[in-house]
Amino acid sequence: MLWTIVSVVLWPVLVLLTTILVLSVTGRSLGIREAFADQLTAIFEWGASKADSYRDIEEDEDDPALTGSEVVEPRPKKKRHASGDSIILREKSDSMERKLQELDSPTFEGDKKPTTVKVIVDDTLELITAGVESIIEDQVTSRFKAEQLVSWNLLTRTSFSYEHINWRLTLLWFGGFIFRYCVLVPLRIVLFSLGIGGLWVVTAIASCIPNREMRKSVNKHGMLMCFRVFSRAFSSIIRFHNRENRATQGGICVANHTSPIDIMILSCDNCYAMIGQRQGGFLGFLQNSLSRSEHHIWFERSEAKDRKAVTKRLQEHVDDPNKLPIIIFPEGTCINNTSVMMFKKGSFEIGRTIYPIAMKYDSRLGDAFWNSSEQGYAEYLFRMMTSWALICDVWYLPPMTRMEGESAIDFAKRVKRAICNKGGLVDLEWDGMLKRSKVPAKMVVEQQKKYWERLSRTTSITHTNPNAYMEYASKLSKEPMHEPFDEEGDEHKGENHAEVSEPEETREENRTAEADRDDNRVQKSCEVVTP
User: Fold this and answer.
1) Does residue 4 fall inside a structural domain?
2) In a domain, 338, yes or no
3) Where is the composition biased (Basic and acidic residues) (predicted)?
4) 458 shares a domain with 377
5) What is the DSSP string of 137-157?
6) End-to-end alpha-carbon separation of the chain, Å?
7) Is 64 contained in some domain?
8) Each residue of 125-149: pLDDT tens digit?
9) I need a surface site. Which of 172, 324, 407, 451 has the fewest CB within 10 A?
């Protein structure tokens, strides 16, 4: 009797696993995951409408003006925004950024430019306001937090107690919880284990083949099959675009970085060599398995500090056309897939041709972002397995070549801009490592230089020595501030004197003369400190 029950339950599971494995290793799909995702999205939108209605009712009950018997017209529902949008309007920050980037070119009447003092005074309030905006919400910290969703996806990790709004949402959430943990998670763990075993077997077989071309072919097809099985362990829905632009023989591929499973997503369509620091534990096991059949670059922690040694090994790999194209994530850290931060210039100094890849995740069914400061790798994998699904769009961009006279930094910015435009991401110039370290002095100096260039464009300060001016400004910043009047004596000086009215033309001439004297004082101060 017991064996009959076990066989009745076991056979459908075995048939399901076999079907999934056959479809994954052949790269086929029956469309079930896509239809399942569409149905879930419709359910989430219905749940969001219930949550919005409940919120509107609470707001009406809390409003004392609406507690009477008067009839209130229904208010239109407000749209909720994802965390990719700011919680404040960064008007002054954007305005100063446009000014520093020469996007707002001022127009002058004739050849007359405004005085230096006038421009500085006009910019001061905007700079202070931009600083306050950054204190409220800066552009760096918010990129290392999970993206908030437009509609609740029935996961308590992304909810604000929505499951307690009414009994329908509670039942829906509880049913989803049972389905994910009792059906999806066991199935995904089995698939993940089969993928690990298949990876070990494929690399072991490939390492025993003496012929280079045959070993390379076995490794390529084996890796594609194993990583596709891995992707099914997360119910991944991956859409590849412009596959004709894929790197085939050698070269450097760069992509924006959101998660450690980015490489799993990309390896479902192409084989790549990897570069990174040698790890221990489970990641170390994967690194050793991969290195048995193909050439990957793993460096020790002590060697990571030696930039020249790592660059040399990378250059040797790129120069060999028989090796796999190497995949690099130049940001150096995981971003929440709303933006792309500064690319490190190292990989752009080595190869003249870069194959850019843009990756954009749909976080409605599961957020792929890894917050390494709060989650370990095992916890992150478990959270992904307990999510509904993983949806990602991958765009292969045309190869980009470094132009004559173009620096590695400018080349990196150009590639990053192309990735942002294709993936619909925000292009940020900030270094992603700022989440772990303080702002370096060179970034402060760079902002000061940009503002000096703005003064050079918009005022008559261009003929002064910029180095002397910066030295003078630094000297002034270290001096203590003096009160404009003495509290006991000068505070009330002149309070009994009546104002003498002047004609408008006379006041304008006096203001112009005073501004010219201010410019002369600034320029003379610069000449004093000029070496």
Assistant:
1) no
2) yes
3) 479-500, 508-524
4) no
5) S-TTGGGGSPPPPSS--S-GG
6) 99
7) no
8) 777 777 776 666 666 776 767 666 6
9) 407
Q: Is the pLDDT of residue 47 over 90?
A: no
User: Is the Cβ–Cβ distance between 357 and 396 less than 8 Å?
Assistant: yes
CA distance 233 to 389: 9
Are residue 413 and residue 321 in the same domain, yes or no? yes
Q: Which amino acid is at 32?
A: I
Alpha-carbon distances of 59 from 53, 160, 415, 425, rounded to whole Å: 10, 16, 47, 34
Q: Got the DSSP string for 396-430?
A: EPPPEEPPTT--HHHHHHHHHHHHHHHHT-EE--S
Task: Tell me: do 407 and 460 sit in the same domain.
Answer: no
Query: What is the widest separation between alpha-carbon atoms in the chain?
Result: 111
Indicate the residue among 435, 450, 481 that finishes a domain: 435
Rounded Cα distance, 191 and 194, in Å = 5
The alpha helices in 271-336, defined as continuous H runs, are 281-291, 301-304, 307-319
267 and 392 fall within a common domain: yes
- Domain assignment present for residue 192? The answer is no
- Does residue 274 share a domain with residue 333? yes
Residue 405 has pLDDT above 80, yes or no: yes
Q: What are the structure tokens assigned to 512, written together?
A: 């112009």
Q: What is d(CA 342, CA 161) in angstroms, rounded to the nearest whole number?
A: 37
242: number of Cβ within 10 Å: 13
Query: How many distinct structural domains can be found in the chain?
Result: 2
pLDDT tens, residue by residue, 414-441: 999 999 999 999 888 877 776 666 766 7
For the chain, state the CA radius of gyration.
31
Question: From residue 492, how far is each of 483, 485, 497, 501 by CA, in Å?
Answer: 14, 9, 10, 21
Q: Domain containing 110: what range?
A: 93-137+438-466
Cβ 368 vs Cβ 404: under 8 Å: no
| Residue 123 token pair | 């910019």
Calculated CA dihedral for residues 266, 270, 273, 275, nearest 10 degrees: -10
Distance of CA 298 to the CA centre of its chain: 25
Residues 262 and 408 in one domain: yes
Return the pLDDT at 455. Answer: 73
Nearest CA among 392, 425, 354 for reference residue 269: 392
Residues 165/51, Cβ–Cβ less than 8 Å: yes
Q: Are residues 442 and 372 in the same domain?
A: no
Specify the residue for token string 């002064």: 464
Residue 391's beta-bridge partner residues?
A: 237, 362
The pLDDT-based confidence of 366 (bands split at 50, 70, 90) is confident
Give the whole-angstrom CA distance, residue 387 versus residue 161.
18
